[in-house]
Amino acid sequence: MENLKDLLPVEAVRLDVRAADWREAIGAAGRLMVETGATTDEYTREMVANVEENGPYIVIAPGVAFAHSRPSPAVLSTGMSWVRLAEPVEFGHESNDPVTLVVALAAQDSAAHTSAMASLARLLGDPDTAAALAAAPTPQALHAVLAGERPEDGPGKSEPATTSEPIQPRAGSLHKILTVCGNGVGTSLFLKNTLERVLDRWGWSRFVTVEATDTISAKGKASEAVALLTSREIARTLGDVGRPVKVVQDFTSTAEVDAVLRDTYDV
Question: Rounded mean pLDDT of 27-51?
Fold first, then answer.
């Protein structure tokens, strides 16, 4: 699997970029992936169309948009780009606007970038690291922050406290939770990684599996799941699937996902 600094070269980082609106912001991130050989211009149009079709669910955390679309012939190799905006822009998200950071992903499949998504989720979910990324004066300095990721989060972060003895699911059978996005390769993987970190801290990883999927597949798989976790926009698209659909506003927040998991299992 590729790691974050492999998928996000320093040449794909731009700071203090000016954009008039969300389309220009995604366009700036798309051009960087074209310049680094990851995509063609068509993929940038596909990322814009994804928001037009599915809404601003890609705004995964306050101030952070994760632009992407489905794997397509416009993706030449799996890659990413990072655009920090000079002035924030509105994407139309109910709680996470305005956006100052656009991270873009072009994926050839859902497997190659799984570890990179886990790394990015940990970095953006750590307040100190997120602040360092926001303050980095140059692309090189920002890339150095990305490369210095810790394997474990330090104390005093936004992680929920764990109990001295892990609580257990009421039933001993293996449970499944679906994380859902429009394409199944971007924000759903991001949320999957955050949820798995919470499950690890609860000691539930052996009892609950997490599967990232897209809206169409989620409707067919819903009967297999205890619950579906997603954004408000995708929840509206899913409608009634016969299982609880839980909305997560900040996909980087283990505290929020912890609360959603407690509500799901009435813990």
Answer: 97
